[in-house]
Design brief:
Length: about 230
């Protein structure tokens, strides 16, 4: 009888031990696990949000509050625009763009006439010569255009030059003058008359008796600058 009770008690003890040692049961009983399970929905909770949003807001690391691209921070906002009209360097300061010279000219015929006078003006330099002393009858100007347009190579300066640079070369050397100001009306007028000479030369009838076009035009006074 006694052994029967003992066996029964033992069996009960073994059954109890089996139930308690179940891992799931043990966790569910742990007070720490219970607190953790309660915390999750608290984090996700936002007032007025749908359940899906509650979860999203709880987990979303880019939640609206922290948005680094919010309109406020826009570095291209109109205020800071460096191309704004106020900063335009071409904006009219006092009614127009900066002119290249104080006196402007718009009459081309007048400009060419002014240029013709200058090509014949001894006072342009200090050598006592005029441009026309050397360039009369289209001499030494290479007007047949075999060299092409400016800038082209010219033997005397031994360089490739623009028309204006060549004019200044003759100003400084044969004319013994100061170079002309690039933006001066004098420079523009002398250049305009040079083009007039080109047009005159090329409009001439090809065969004047006894004179071959190219040769006749390039003959002139002996080159006074050659010896240097
Ligand atoms: C003492 C003579 C002399 C005088 C004065 C003179 N030049 Fe010249 N000019 C020359 C010679 C020489 C050349 C070079 C020709 C060459 O090397 O092919 C030349 C070349 C030029 C050319 C370039 C022609 C080309 O090859 O396309 C121009 C333009 C010119 N002269 C303009 C002028 C002007 C403008 C003046 C007056 C401000 C002037 N010259 C005064 C002698 C003169």
């Amino acid at each position: 009888m006694r052994s029967k009770r003992t066996i029964s008690a033992l069996l009960t003890l073994i059954a109890l031990l089996l139930v308690v040692s179940q891992p799931g049961t043990a966790e569910m009983l742990s007070p720490q696990a219970t607190r953790q399970a309660e915390r999750v929905p608290v984090v996700a909770m936002q007032p007025g949000a749908t359940p899906a949003l509650q979860v999203a807001q709880g987990m979303n690391p880019c939640a609206a509050k922290a948005n680094p691209c919010a309109a406020k921070a826009n570095p291209c906002a109109a205020k800071a625009n460096p191309c704004g009209a106020a900063a335009n360097p071409c904006a009219a300061k006092s009614g127009g763009p900066t002119p290249i010279r104080a006196d402007s000219i718009r009459d081309h015929g007048k400009l060419v006439a002014m240029g013709k006078d200058l090509w014949n003006d001894r006072k342009l330099g200090t050598s006592g010569l005029t441009c026309m002393n050397c360039h009369v009858n289209h001499a030494l100007l290479n007007l047949d255009m075999t060299k092409g347009r400016f800038p082209h190579f010219v033997k005397m300066p031994n360089d490739i030059v623009t028309l204006d640079q060549m004019i200044n070369f003759c100003m400084v050397n044969p004319m013994k003058a100061k170079p002309l100001e690039a933006n001066s009306i004098t420079m523009t007028a002398i250049a305009a008359y040079f083009n007039q000479l080109v047009d005159e030369y090329n409009a001439k009838p090809a065969a004047a008796p006894g004179a071959s076009k190219g040769k006749a035009k390039t003959s002139g006074p002996a080159n006074p600058c050659a010896a240097k």
